[in-house]
Design a protein that fits this description.
- Helices cover 33% and strands 20% of the residues.
- With 428 residues, the protein is of the alpha/beta class.
- It has two domains: 309 residues, Adenylosuccinate Synthetase, subunit A, domain 3 (Adenylosuccinate Synthetase, Chain A, domain 3); 95 residues, Adenylosuccinate Synthetase, subunit A, domain 2, CATH 1.10.300.
- The strands form five sheets. Strands 9-7-5-2-10-1-11-15-19-20 form a ten-stranded mixed sheet, sandwiched between helices. Strands 14, 16, 17 and 18 form a four-stranded mixed sheet that branches. Strands 3-4 form a two-stranded antiparallel sheet.
- α3 packs across α4 and α6 packs across α7.
- The structure holds guanosine-5'-diphosphate, 6-O-phosphoryl inosine monophosphate and magnesium ion.
- Magnesium ion (MG) binds next to loops.
- The site of guanosine-5'-diphosphate has 23 residues, from α1 and β3.
Length: 428
Amino acid sequence: MPVTIIIGGQWGDEGKGKLVDIFAGQADVVIRANGGANAGHTVVTDQGTFKFHLIPSGILRPECRCIVGAGVVLDPRLLLQEIDELHERGIDTSNLRVSSRSHIVMPYHPILDRLEEDERGDNKIGTTQRGMGPAFADKAARVGLRIADIADPEHLRDRLDAVLAEKNQLLTTRYGQPALDLAEMSEQYAAYGEGLAPYIADTELMVQDAIDAGVDVVIEGAQAVMLDIDYGSYPFVTSSSPTAAGVCQGAGVAPTQVDRIIGVYKAYATRVGEGAFPTELHDATGAHIRERGKEYGTTTGRPRRTGWFDAVQARYTARLNGVDEVALAKFDVLDGLDSVRICTGYRLDGKEILSPPARISDYGRVEPVFEEWPGWNVDTTGAESVDDLPIRARQYVNRIEELLNVPVTYVGVGPHRRQMVTRVAPAA
Ligand code: GDP
Ligand code: IMO
Ligand code: MG
């Protein structure tokens, strides 16, 4: 399968990094395609636990070329730090390339992200404070700086000269903050440009060459469809497009070149940050799932909100993204529960509705309709094939498959890259 897309189907942290690492074992190229350092993708191997924010999750596979695509808004300080940390652990990064077209997070972006959040008060989004909103806004407003700009110090200073005056105006007059220094920032970013120089390339051409050569290419989505700027729970979303279409754009791949789209979903649901969450649990079961699933943010350490699997949302995201296969992650986290629930419908003002409502105030008050399934009192973490899963666990997987109308081809039974059961979908 030459071009495979891996995206999240819920609110993020589904276990995309783990699946990308597994696929990278066979692939020639992995491309991170959207978002920025708001992402936190975890890979667990015999060497330990790795958390990637900007570097593609294929980097632990020495044969695999890893690309940060043009769709990523990149914080060069964090990228260089991530590269250094990998070197300290003996991981080679000579196969890493960064798009010359990636936009850059500047020092004023995280500052403005924090100030805007403070100003929202009770309506805060709960952003990761990595500067995503302000950086993507600048990209759309055509005042962003790109990797190609910082690679040339003179050009960088000219561009920054034009942009920083306006940012300083905003910081000082609107927010009463100190102005940022042009010379210091130019120097700092020129140094980042120098540090990144060996990695910079026109990566979209590398990706197209790989596709022409017929080798395996994996596109790694960050965030997830319910955080999408168009189809997510707006305004409680991120500022990029984590959809299959969005990651194509960010990677430099045409929709017609994609062969396989895998949606990663947890066997339950989590959300970090504010916004609607119809199946949220506020009880001991929710706390149990949080502890057993170690549901604490990879990027911010915040406790994740937990709830039951929402098949209304999942069907919506699977349909919109042409998901061919579902990877059902963190299945083992449900081991030992007396019963498990799946949300199969929403009701709003007494009426059944078939998809997440567009208006956030409606989304926040839909009533989930649940069906209950018996739990399985078996530890699944050692399962190596579907046959090792207890019958009740298999019934739960079958039901999700039926509700989504998409085959579940992988079941995650633990964080380690080995703990993934491959499931052959029943013939249609
Ligand atoms: P991503 O953002 O989608 O890559 O996911 P994160 O890495 O932010 O969060 C997923 C968390 O669950 C990480 O701590 C993973 O190590 C862990 N994880 C992934 N798959 C499984 C699984 O099948 N079972 C368990 N128990 N943990 C998993
Ligand atoms: P991965 O790739 C989970 C959430 C934030 C917040 C909202 C907006 O690891 O799945 P932002 O900083 O992007 O402006 O925050 O989006 N968010 C994520 N939640 N996983 C992520 O990435 C996320 N990236 C952003 O918590 O609710
Ligand atoms: Mg994550």
